[in-house]
Write a structure and sequence with these properties.
9 helices, alpha+beta, Helix Hairpins, 226 residues
Length: 226
C-alpha cells in the first residue's frame, strides 16, 4: 500500500478509499504546515475515531440538537465527568439515565463532523502509522460504515480544488495549472519588483505597503514549495 506524501496530491476520500481496499488498521496522520496534526483511526479499513486538532462541536451540542437532554443536565453531566475523569457520554448514560441509543447517535454525528473538518484541510503531510495512541473512548467496534465515511467524499479525479494552493497562485499571478517552476520564476520576479530594500527613494508609507505585499508573496511561495 503506497499513499501520497502530501494532501495536495490527493484528497481525504482517495486516502480513505485506498486504506479501505487494503483493510488497513492504524492511524492516518495529517500534519499541517502550521503545526496542527489530525488523525483518523481505522480498523480493517473502517473509520472508528477522529482526533481533530482544532475547535469542533462537543457531544452536548449534538445531543441538544436532538433534544436528547436539556441544558442543565448536559452542564451537570459535563462537570461531573471532568471531576471524575470519566467520559461525558458515560456519565450521561449511567448517572443521568440519558438514552444510550441517543448518546450513540450523537457520538456518531460528532465523529462524522470531525471527519468533514479534516476533509476541508488545504494541505498536510500524509503518514500512516500502524501504532498510535487512541483517543479516550475510541471503540473499534463502533466503526462507521462505508456509506458514511466514503460516499460523497471529494476525489482527486473529480478535480477537487485546494483553496490554499488556489489562493497562493492568485497572489503570485499564476494560472491554476501552473507548475512549481512557474511559481519559482514568478516569485523571483516579484521579489525584484516589490522588495523594499531593492527599490530606492521609497517613502515610509510605500515601504510599509511593499513590505506587507512582500510578506504575502513569501507566504504564498512557501505554501506551494513546502
Amino acid at each position: 500500500m503506497i499513499l501520497p506524501g502530501r494532501l495536495l496530491a490527493t484528497t481525504l476520500g482517495d486516502l480513505l478509499g485506498t486504506l479501505y481496499r487494503a483493510r488497513a488498521s492504524g492511524a492516518l496522520e495529517l500534519a499541517e504546515p502550521r503545526g496542527r496534526t489530525h488523525r483518523v483511526f481505522l480498523r480493517q479499513g473502517l473509520v472508528y475515531a477522529v482526533d481533530y486538532d482544532g475547535a469542533s462541536p462537543e457531544l452536548g451540542q449534538f445531543l441538544r440538537r436532538n433534544q436528547a437532554a436539556d441544558d442543565d443536565t448536559l452542564r451537570r453531566a459535563l462537570l461531573r465527568a471532568m471531576s471524575s475523569r470519566r467520559l461525558h457520554g458515560e456519565v450521561l448514560m449511567r448517572d443521568f439515565r440519558v438514552d444510550a441509543k441517543l448518546v450513540a447517535e450523537a457520538l456518531r454525528a460528532q465523529l462524522l463532523d470531525r471527519l468533514t473538518r479534516v476533509e476541508r484541510l488545504g494541505d498536510a503531510t500524509v503518514t500512516f502509522r500502524l501504532r498510535a495512541t487512541l483517543p479516550r473512548g475510541a471503540d473499534p467496534e463502533e466503526a462507521l460504515g462505508t456509506c458514511e465515511f466514503l460516499h460523497g467524499r471529494r476525489r482527486a479525479r473529480e478535480g477537487a480544488v485546494d483553496p490554499i494552493r488556489e489562493q497562493a497562485l492568485v497572489v503570485l499571478g499564476l494560472a491554476a495549472r501552473a507548475s512549481l517552476e512557474d511559481a519559482r520564476r514568478a516569485y523571483r520576479q516579484l521579489v525584484r519588483e516589490l522588495h523594499p530594500d531593492l527599490i530606492q527613494g521609497l517613502s515610509d508609507a510605500e515601504r510599509v505597503r511593499l513590505g506587507k505585499r512582500m510578506r504575502e508573496v513569501n507566504e504564498a511561495y512557501r505554501s506551494l514549495s513546502a
